[in-house]
Amino acid sequence: MTRRFESGVIFIARIALAVLFLWSGVMKLVGYAGFVGYLQSKGVPLVQIAAPVAVAVETLGGIFLVLGLKTRPLGIIMALYTVATAIMGHDFWNISDAALQHDMVIHFWKNIAIAGGFLLLFVTGPGRISIDGARAPRSGLGL
């Protein structure tokens, strides 16, 4: 595989991850009161801080992913955020309804898989089709 091809694949992966978070962040912002109510129903502490942080992480994180800006640290932040939302938002172990529990299990493991994608992005970097890639020297791996 060529570095150009690898960079193209990494760019597509960044876009795929970004779409989910951009859409989710904007929907949280548009329905902010409902989102705050949801966090309260889940027993999330410090909702007044957690809600705007979640909107910012998802929206800004999505934008940074598209641009390929600060990609490696963003990969760690987004992985941690995604695992935290899996634990707090998809707590299947607290649900007794079998159908709802099944859905929450799927959503929980989906979040864990997405976190794995962010960890891969942390390791691979953003590829050359990115702001980070444009700033990087062309020696070494250069992905």
TrEMBL record:
Q: Which InterPro entries match?
A: DoxX (IPR032808), DoxX-like_oxidoreductase (IPR051907)
Location within or outside the cell: Cell membrane
Keyword Cell membrane among record annotations: yes
Q: Which family does it belong to?
A: Belongs to the DoxX family.
Q: Which GO terms describe its cellular component?
A: plasma membrane
Source species = Paraburkholderia saeva
Report if keyword Transmembrane helix is assigned. Answer: yes
Give the transmembrane region(s): 7-26, 46-67, 74-93, 105-125
Q: How does it sit in the membrane?
A: Multi-pass membrane protein
Name the UniProt key words of this record, in alphabetical order.
Answer: Cell membrane, Membrane, Transmembrane, Transmembrane helix
Q: What is this protein called?
A: Inner membrane protein YphA
